Amino acid sequence: MGSLALINGTIYTSFNPLKKTNNLLIYNGYFKIISNSNEILDFAKREKIEIIDLKNKFAIPGFIDAHMHLDELGEFIKGINLKETTSIKNFCYYISKEKDKFKTWIFGHGWDQEKFIEKRWPNHFDVDNCSSNKPLFLSRIDLHSALINQNAINILISINKKLYGVERFPDGSPTGIIKEDAFEEIRKIFRETRSIEEQKEILELAQNELLANGVTSIGFMSVDEKTLNALLELRSENKLKIRVSAYLRPEIMEMSRQVRNDDLLSIKGIKLFADGSFGSRTALLSYPYEDDPTNKGYEAMSKGDLLENCMKAKELNLKTAIHAIGDKGIDNVIWVYERCGKKNRIEHASLIREDQFSKIAKVDPFVVVQPHFIISDYWIINRVGKERIKWVYPFKTLANYGINIAFSTDSPVEPIDPFLTITSAVNRGKDQELELYRYTKHESLDVLEAYDAYTNKSSLAIDRDDIGKIEIGEKGDLVILDKDPIENYQSNKVLITIINGDIVYKNPDQNLIF
Question: Half-sphere exposure of 324 toward its Cβ, with a 13 Å CA cutoff?
Fold first, then answer.
């Protein structure tokens, strides 16, 4: 744990209420002195502590991404980036360009069929000829669907297990699109080919990306056994720099008994699924999809199974985080938390009916939202129609009901850049002239609410009450920025990221370093 003195800057210590100072001192990893410049300088000189003159730059508490996937972000960085793909024809270009770097499976992420000029979902015939003899796994942007090639389809068939989510042609043969259960099964097989050392490399790639974006703490969702072991090894090797609150897959929750929690790595809960996603039309709805009238979505786990797992987690002193995007999925989660207890989590909560807000408030969860979904799901009105569009991403209404909302990116589903997240929460697609803005602009948060949700509220969501604000006795995590974050919330540059008083990232552009 390090020690630093920061002077001559504008340091926002809290956003609710708004507080700021010009100077502070971190000592042995904790904020020790705030505001008193003479006392700070005397202490720093006496203890030989490094002094950083901010020269009128700005600092804020470290960003806390309350729901993201460190392993999948690393896979995205290492794999084939398909986020900008606007045509199925482009798949083979990207695959051919990068396929030789993969040892076993070819993998990539980020495509969205809503963007394709072909106006259809891809299938295995689109990629079989360009993916050589290796199995292929290309996940959709929402991480609820994927495209696989014929080699991977053969593996799927060999499992000889009836799985939900295997899309088929009229003749009954698999199209290569897999969703939900089938998606999870194939992803599990693909990941089993990876060694612990490869898993550690992927986690470190993701960690570096987070630090460069000023993210100092995360809620790491759906941690499996291999990934947990990789995290433990990174911690023992002093390579884990970021704070990780881990939410385990339910089948390994008993492993929490064997892990010694510490300042950087702690097991806080389990992650469950009530439904799927809007992009894959598997979010569980009370009424059918507007653009698929025979479909109400997918119940990933029954209410009984959700409750059973929540109660087991409670016995282990773990919180439960349940993914629920559709309103019917949220009904199921409310039912569970009425029986399992307060202060658990609802992940996403993308479509909330008017009658549900008071019920959610009574079970008093942390609702962890992803504001950039507003931008990515620009087509959402096609899914839910004009009557239900007013219920989508209702951040302001949640806040007005006194419900704690925390921010996250669900990365790599959404970009890890916090300023994109904040802009989405405040502007709600106004800059992009999205149709959604016209219907839901009343759900915009103000800038201070957005920053508070990304710092203090997110700290509570990941079960850490010692981070998220700059106060004496709190952990010494902060981010130094090039511009005033209040005035420049749409775009800013991270200059330095500090965790426990240690500088863990410096912007390589020397022209920006004071």
Answer: 30
pLDDT of residue 419: 98
* Element of type H or E holding 272: strand 265-273
Per-residue pLDDT for 187 more than 90?
yes
- Secondary structure letter of residue 146 according to DSSP: E
Residue 474 to residue 465: CA distance in whole angstroms? 9
* Identity of the amino acid at 249: R
Residues 6+ apart with CB under 8 A from 304: none
Type of residue at 406: A
Q: What's the alpha-carbon Rg for the chain, to the nearest Å? A: 23
Q: What whole-number distance in Å separates Cα of residue 211 and Cα of residue 217?
A: 9
CA–CA distance, 300 with 128 (Å, rounded to integer): 30
- Could you identify the residue written with the tokens 């540059």? 493
Distance between alpha carbon 514 and the CA centroid of its chain, in Å? 31
**Contact by Cβ (8 Å): 134, 105:** yes
Residues 6+ apart with CB under 8 A from 508: none
Nearest-angstrom CA–CA distance, 348 and 341 = 19
Q: What is the pTM of this model?
A: 0.96
Check residue 225 and give its pLDDT.
97
Q: How would residue 132 be classed by pLDDT, with cut points 50, 70 and 90?
A: confident
Q: Per the structure block, which two tokens stand in for 259?
A: 């892990």
- Output the 3-class SS for 200-224: HHHHHHHHHHHHHCCEEEEEEEEEC
pLDDT tens-digit readout, 326-340: 999 999 999 999 999
Structure tokens at 467: 């981070």
294/297 Cα distance (integer angstroms): 9
- Using CA atoms, how far apart are residues 147 and 327, in angstroms rounded to an integer? 27
Three-state SS for 34? strand
What strand order describes the sheet that includes 80-81?
80-81, 106-111, 136-140, 145-148, 174-179, 166-168
- To 5 degrees, how large is the angle CA 293–CA 294–CA 295? 95
